[in-house]
Design a protein that fits this description.
By secondary structure, this protein is an alpha/beta fold. Helix content is 38%, strand content 17%. It is flat and about 80 Å long. The termini are far apart.
Length: 391
């Protein structure tokens, strides 16, 4: 108050701008809050968002109590884990999951394509696109929960189409085909590679949740002569490292029941478990069944079926415990072209949140034990993954 040009705080200014004591406040990107030289915004929001305290909010400029209890605060965030715990505890969390491929195609057809067409100076009768071409852009050029990158890619296609029309190299109307997309956007950026990756024993397909929604995660295992031990790579967190150790202990303890032919399979051998995309940090217990399956596949010589993705925490007794993010993981498996998904039995109720259209394309197998996982995931003895794919 003592400085020239000083003003009330941002909340009081917003109340003045709204002209009401019960407006809606949008706090965008709440997970990006960072403390600076002027203090920690997250600490200031503790009082603002707490219904038990915000009826007497005190602005430093006015120095009088303000009643904020009628204000509706809506905060948005991409990653809830980076929001301070006490602040998150004062909010009701509503989670919005990523779109399915069909939903993205519908959004692109009805909203994104017309908007980008108008912005790039084209009329509706000058350029046309079919749904299968939009689906090609979604699957081969984007990997996201939303549609922001999809709109950018469609804008690129339309700009190059407008250039060709303006230079008279083509005549309107132009029908955008797969060849047009490849020419405009270049080579394919994302691949559905589960079949190729799991063609050899020791590789399993897991499911993970990232900042862009659900995705597949490959776990590779191999063994070599040397001092007995376990080597872990792929920038894994502590919990994920423990999952790998539990997986190896379970496989060693149940070697006979798993049908591992060599009784000396663990003698003087070092096991190496790697999770590719080594530049990306990974953590959490839900890769336990994937690591166990990869090691069992390696030691039995039975490849993992290329259509199967799995998630779940594993215990030394071989039980499969529930995990989080089931909806996002199932959506990620569907987008990756998998047809079978293995989840813990206690996560069965989470399937109610998955769109019906996705569940009709997938076979979801709730399991209680690792033995059930291996029976579903591994090829029969003597059958290779390439033979199964050919059949």
């Amino acid at each position: 108050r003592t400085y020239i040009g000083s003003m009330p705080g941002r909340i009081v200014q917003a109340l003045k701008q709204a002209g009401s004591m019960n407006p809606v406040f949008m706090l965008d990107e709440a997970d990006k809050l960072a403390a600076g030289v002027q203090g920690d915004p997250a600490a200031a929001l503790l009082e603002v968002l707490d219904p038990a305290q915000n009826h007497s909010f005190r602005d430093h400029y006015l120095d009088v109590e303000l009643d904020l209890s009628e204000v509706l605060f809506i905060a948005t965030a991409n990653v809830a884990e980076s929001i301070p715990g006490p602040l998150l505890d004062r909010m009701e969390v509503i989670r919005f999951d990523g779109y399915t491929t069909d939903e993205k195609v519908a959004i692109a057809r009805d909203y994104l394509w017309p908007r980008q067409r108008e912005r790039n100076g084209l009329r509706e009768d000058e350029v046309q696109v079919a749904d299968d071409v939009l689906a090609l852009v979604v699957s081969d050029y984007t990997r996201e929960a939303g549609v922001r990158q999809l709109e950018r890619e469609l804008g690129t296609v339309l700009r190059k189409t407008a250039t060709r029309i303006a230079s008279a190299s083509v005549t309107a109307p132009v029908i955008v085909t797969a060849e047009t997309v490849r020419e405009a956007l270049g080579r394919q950026k994302f691949f559905q590679e589960a079949a190729e990756r799991t063609a050899v024993p020791g590789v399993a397909t897991g499911l993970a949740v990232t900042g862009t929604g659900g995705d597949v995660l490959f776990v590779e295992a191999t063994a070599m002569k040397g001092a007995a031990g376990l080597l872990l790579t792929g920038q894994l967190g502590d919990v994920m490292k423990e999952s790998a150790r539990i997986a190896l202990s379970y496989v060693r303890g149940h070697a006979e029941s798993l049908g591992i032919p060599d009784e000396h399979a663990f003698d003087d051998r070092e096991f190496h478990v790697h999770v590719p995309a080594g530049a990306i940090p990974k953590d959490g217990p839900s890769a336990g069944v994937t690591m166990t399956t990869a090691l069992a596949s390696l030691l039995t010589g039975r490849p993992v079926k290329h259509t199967v993705g799995m998630t779940g925490e594993v215990t030394l007794q071989g039980r499969v415990l529930p995990i989080g993010g089931v909806k996002q993981k199932v959506l990620g498996a569907h987008a990756a072209g998998l047809t079978d998904v293995i989840i813990p039995e206690r996560n069965r109720a989470d399937l109610d949140d998955v769109p019906e259209a996705v569940l009709t394309d997938l076979r979801v197998h709730p399991v209680l034990t690792v033995a059930e996982v291996l029976e579903l995931a591994l090829e029969p003895a003597g059958v290779t993954a390439t033979e199964t794919a050919r059949v």
